[in-house]
Design brief:
With 606 residues, the chain is mainly β. The chain has 4 helices and 37 strands. The chain has a 22-stranded antiparallel beta barrel. The longest helix has 9 residues.
Length: 606
């Protein structure tokens, strides 16, 4: 415990160094800045964000139902509710169940930049309890072009994607549409005697349009809409009143924002943004079990270089949330939250501190604060040391306080914000002309007033502020790039999560997570890749019992591999296999993962 306090105190004195770098994401070359400990997220043909994150050892995914429906990210021992998911600067997980953002609907084909940032962050939206998954959608570049991708495989799996993008005069545009279908085939989940049909389909539409009003002023409109439909487990839901097992559960999620940006590609940028989020749940198609949640917001941000070494930024956010539900009769709730942000960064070359404070005020509550501080120290051109410390805050949602969705959730209007204190101390070293990169970090933190679901009766739950969770661990990664045609990386994360003696809360995460990834280009037109992941056992709930008992899910190893061929400048073919060894495992109790899946497809650009 003494070491835990020393780590948190030391975190006031060192941060991630912002490195200008070029990296490749899904055949798109991106210029940007990324914190030193956030390695570029390689995609290796992944079609979904969930698949892309599977190569990150600091992330543990928990999947419920179809892969297209629910997949939640646990970062460094923090519950998935503590993972902030952002798209184009707007936080998405304010509408989904218990504040978790399901990763299932996000398609990598629509993304230009994805960063996985564990721990406390400066300048990345709300100060997270666990970490940030930040996405930026594609923008049209060059002359207009059309692209089409089709992928088919075993277990009735299909992916189709079409996009139109480009630039015309002072307008850039990107519009992409996706259709995905998947099933478990004959591999029905019969683990623990729990039979789940688990068929899924997803339809998605994404758009990003920018109009350059002046040389420094751009009006940008961004939006995405996904609808998922999943087959029901009739045996599980037949006891619910008025349920119609012949229908399917549907979830529709939407997000849109309009931003007026000054100096979009310059250090001194400012933006005015309007955004809207939506969550519609049609549980088994029953008209008496509906949930509608809306979120509207206004965002003002401005960054300014004050001197040659000193820069600052400020922001104001207004978020208005509304909840409308119908169980036996219709009920409506609403809340407005104001947030003020002030941050600064000072570049002393050998020591660069930065910090940020956010103040919140919501309905029926006083002022609450979160903050983050970070310092980085470049020891040499090859070595840097960084540290971060922060206090995260996550307010309860209206859906948590008043929601009764699905007829199985009791409201609890007395909920208060959950909080976290966390720190990281790390080092990064590059050698052999930057062909070898070694990274290491230790982290620790504590979560208090944790928001969690409590089973109060069979098939009946309530969200409560319960328990304290301590977490600490180590991370290490070695990347070797002997030539531009070959890349390999081995990463390992050990996380120890502990809870109070009076709280029997499972951690939902593996204590050990080991990932190996290899990519090679034996020819300019051919790319081969392979990825192996080992995850140790984890604790989980068995909600089929009352009260819910704790079970241990076994360890497992998964392997995936594939290849892609550029047949011409505009025509490509690819093939891959997921779960090559056919491992039988669960990441959430009662939901078996898919077996061995073969996929083959091609893409065309016109």
């Amino acid at each position: 415990m003494r070491g835990h306090h020393l780590l948190l105190l030391s975190s006031f004195f060192v941060t991630p160094m912002l490195l200008a770098q070029t990296y490749v994401l899904d055949e798109v070359r991106v210029e940007g800045e990324a914190p030193a400990e956030a390695a570029p997220l390689e995609t290796y043909q992944e079609r979904s964000l969930r698949e892309a994150l599977s190569s990150q050892s600091s992330v543990a995914l928990s999947q419920q139902g179809s892969p297209l429906q629910n997949a939640f990210a646990y970062i460094r021992g923090v519950p998935s509710q503590g993972t902030t998911v952002m798209m184009d600067g707007a936080t998405l997980n304010t509408q989904s169940e218990l504040g978790r953002a399901s990763l299932g609907p996000f398609v990598m084909l629509d993304m230009e930049d994805v960063r996985m940032l564990p721990g406390t962050q400066v300048g990345q939206g709300a100060h997270p309890l666990g970490g940030v998954i930040s996405m930026r959608t594609k923008r049209g570049k060059g002359k207009p072009q059309f692209s089409s991708l089709l992928e088919r495989g075993s277990l009735r799996s299909t992916t189709a994607h079409e996009a139109l993008s480009g630039q015309i005069d002072k307008t850039d545009f990107y519009v992409g549409g996706t259709l995905q279908k998947t099933g478990l085939g004959s591999r029905v989940n019969k683990l623990h005697g729990n039979v789940v049909a688990d068929e899924g389909a997803l339809q998605g539409l994404a758009g990003n349009v920018g109009v350059k009003l002046t040389d420094t002023l751009t009006l940008r409109t961004i939006g995405n809409l996904t609808a998922t439909q999943n087959a029901l487990d009739q045996a599980r839901y037949k006891e619910l009143p008025q349920a119609n097992p012949a229908h399917s559960a549907e979830l529709t999620r939407g997000h849109a924002q309009v931003r007026l940006v000054q100096g979009e590609d310059t250090p001194n940028e400012g933006a005015v943004g309007l955004f809207m989020g939506a969550y519609n749940g049609f549980f088994m198609g029953d008209i008496n079990l509906k949930t509608h949640s809306r979120n509207y917001g206004l965002s003002l941000t401005k960054k300014q270089d004050l001197t040659k070494q000193w820069s600052g930024w400020g922001g104001y956010d207004l978020s208005f949330e509304s909840l409308r539900q119908r169980i036996s009769n219709e009920e409506s709730f609403s809340e407005a939250v104001h947030a003020l942000t002030i941050g600064t960064r000072y570049d002393l070359k050998k020591l660069i501190p930065e910090g940020e404070v956010k103040l919140y005020r919501g309905k029926g509550s006083g002022v609450e604060a979160s903050y983050a501080v970070a310092v980085h120290a470049p020891v040499s051109e090859q070595t840097e040391i960084y540290t971060k410390y922060g206090r995260g805050l996550k307010r309860p949602l209206l859906m948590e306080k008043y929601g009764a969705y699905g007829g199985s959730q009791l409201p609890n209007p007395n909920l208060v914000s959950q909080r976290s204190h966390s720190g990281t101390l790390g080092v990064k070293h590059q050698a052999l002309d930057r062909r070898l990169t070694i990274e290491g970090a230790v982290f620790a933190g504590v979560l208090t007033r944790l928001l969690r679901q409590v089973q109060v009766a069979p098939r009946l739950f309530e969200t409560r502020n319960m328990g304290t969770r301590h977490f600490e661990g180590i991370e290490a990664k070695v990347s070797i790039d002997p030539s531009p045609a070959f890349h390999t990386a081995l990463s390992y994360t050990m996380t120890r999560a502990r809870v109070g003696q009076d709280q029997a809360m499972p951690t939902h995460i593996p204590r050990h997570n080991l990932c190996l990834e290899v990519e090679g280009k034996p020819h300019d037109d051919v790319t081969l890749f392979a990825q192996a992941t080992l995850q140790s056992s984890r604790l989980n709930y068995n909600f089929t019992d009352y009260p819910a008992s704790i079970v241990t899910l076994g360890s497992f190893i998964t392997v995936r591999a594939g290849a892609s061929w550029s047949l011409t400048q505009n025509l490509s073919a690819f093939a891959r296999v997921d779960n090559l060894t056919g491992a039988v495992y669960e990441t959430d109790y009662g939901y078996g993962a898919r077996g061995r899946t073969f996929m083959i497809g091609g893409s065309l650009k016109l």
